[in-house]
Each structure stands twice: as structure tokens, then as C-alpha cells.
Amino acid sequence: MAFERIAIVGTGAWGTALANATARAGRSVTLASRDQASADEIARTRQSPRLAGSRIDDRVAVVMADAAVLSSQDAILLAVPAQHLRAAARMVAPALAANVPVVACAKGIERGTHKFMTEVIAQCVPTAVPAILSGPSFAQEVARGLPAAVTLAAPDESVAAALSRALGSATFRPYHSTDVRGVEIGGAAKNVLAIAAGIVAGRGLGASAAAALTTRGFAELFRFGRALGARPETLTGLSGLGDLILTCSSAQSRNFSLGIALGQGRTPAQANAAAGLAEGAFTAVALVEMALAADVEMPIATAVAAILDGSLSVNEAIENLLTRPFRAEG
Fold first, then answer.
1. Cα–Cα distance, 190 to 135 (Å, whole number)
2. Neighbours of 269 (CB within 10 A)
3. Which residues are catalytic?
4. Dist. CA 30–CA 79, nearest whole Å
């Protein structure tokens, strides 16, 4: 099973980084924009405006996403924000042959439907093989060729393994899995928890509080994942604990940066404007609603959702968390 021709749909920071990584892996790479003017400009400058300073590898073809381009690909990577993935999946659907892998590269849960990314793909492209790529990785570092390891999951292990080989290189190492749901849960939940970690940093609550928040946040992620059938080794792996550690510790994370702004006293609207697109801000309400439906306690995620919708202030949320009853760890 060979995946030699790979298209990345989405010319933002992550799409650009994945295009460079895939070119380094020796594949034939097409970076496809959903806008002709954008495709022309990026092809001319060899840079995405969302990833300044990182040149797009000369081996990457930058084009407008159309049926002629997409129909000739062995696999499609959808590198668009989670809330826009449905539109991207619908766009590529008419052009794809049966059994072509369509890999979601976004970390989130669709608001309203509560669907994970591979569920959106399965609904919009029923003949495709849905897969998910997630893990601790910043676009700027991956684009530059700095080492990173992620998880690629698909229902069929042979497909997951072949995709991992196709995308993998000495500096970009996808580990394969069949635990699609576990990988998706890790990526979605950690974004929400990273906002909480940013609030701790923005409030200046100290390193001890940051460690406690990250650890207790992981306990929430783990409980939620197990309730939805995720494997423990996935939740403690790259796409779960690994991504949580990265995202809760660096201002390169837009979710962490959003939390810092909130912790420093900005309103949710001001904080969102300062941080840019933070997937956790859109995922929080869906995650909390799903946790309630599954009878899973997620107090940190619930506090983040309440802060974002304005029903709770940062001070109130911190007080609520610090005055929760003492209990056994678990």
C-alpha cells in the first residue's frame, strides 16, 4: 500500500508545515488552497501569510483545490480548523475515488453536532477512509524540520501504518494506531485544558499551581476518554498526555495564549482577538455537554467553558475550583 501523491487542503500554518514535512518524506506533495487568489500569491512568494518566515519547500506544488487536482491523489490531508472541516470535506467529496484516505489534521469537536472530525468526514465523504493525525507539534517547528512525533490513527492498521510511512521522515515521526477515538479525544480535550493552564500563568499563580492544573486536567481527559471507549495507552501517549504537556507549557500554543490573556483580565472577546484562532474556545462547550451526557466530571473544562461564555469570571472560577471538597486522588 503506497501513498505517493498526497494533497494537503488548507494553506494555513499547519497545512504549510505538513506540506514541508511530507516533501521531506519524499512524497509528491500538493498544497491546495480553497481560494484562487490565495493560491497564486502563496505560489509566487513561497510563503503562507499565516506562517511568516517559513519558506514552502520548492518540491511542493501550490494550487487551487479543484476536482482535477484532488482526483489524482492517493491521500488527502484536511488541514483546516475543526469548525470548518465539514465544508472542506464536502468540497473534496465529489472528486475522490473510493477508499482514498482523508486525514483530519484538526483537533476539536464540531459544535452543535458533537461529532469528532473523522465522524464528519465519514458523513460527508462516505466512500473515504477517515483518519486522524494529532500530537505534540507546533507548526513553526515542523515547517523548519525540527524533530516532532505525532500519532496517525485509522480503523485499519495496515492503512494507518502505510500512511505513517508515507508521511514519516527522520524529523517527523508519525506512530500509527487504530484507536481513532482516543486520538481525537486527546487532541480536542487538551486544547480546552490548555486555556485553563494559560489562565494560571496569566494570573501568576505559580509553577506549583501550573503542575497541579495540568495533572488534574489530564485526569479529566483520561476519565472522558475512557467513558467514550478510548484505550489507556492512547490517552497516556503522544496524542493525549504528550500533546497536553506541550500545549499547557508554551505561548506558541494559541489556546495557552488565550488563557494567558484571560488570566491577565481581558474579556473573552479581547482574549480571542489577541490569541488568534484557538480551537479550544470552540470545543469547550461541546466537550462539557458531552461530558455531562456521559456522566463524566470535568470541573476544569466546565470552568473554562463558563469563563468563555461570560457566565463566570476568572476569579469566581478559581475560587470554585480551590474550594471543591477534598477527595481521594483519581
1. 10
2. 10
3. 190
4. 12
Q: Tell me: the pLDDT tens digits for 18-75?
A: 999 999 999 999 999 989 999 999 999 999 999 988 999 999 999 999 998 999 999 9
Contacts of 20 (CB under 8 A, 6+ apart): 54, 56, 57, 60, 142, 143, 145
pLDDT (tens digit per residue) in 256-303 = 999 999 999 999 999 989 888 899 999 999 999 999 999 999 999 999
Please report the DSSP string for 263-288 in residue order.
HTT--HHHHHHHH---HHHHHHHHHH
What is the crossing angle of helices 207-227 and 299-308, to 10°?
A: 100
C-alpha cell at 171: 524529523
The residue ranges of DSSP E strands in the chain, in sequence order, are: 5-9, 28-33, 60-64, 75-78, 101-104, 129-134, 148-153, 172-177
What's this model's pTM, rounded to 2 decimal places?
0.96
Q: Are 76 and 34 in contact (CB under 8 A)?
A: no
DSSP-derived letter for residue 57 is P
Average pLDDT over residues 108-129: 97
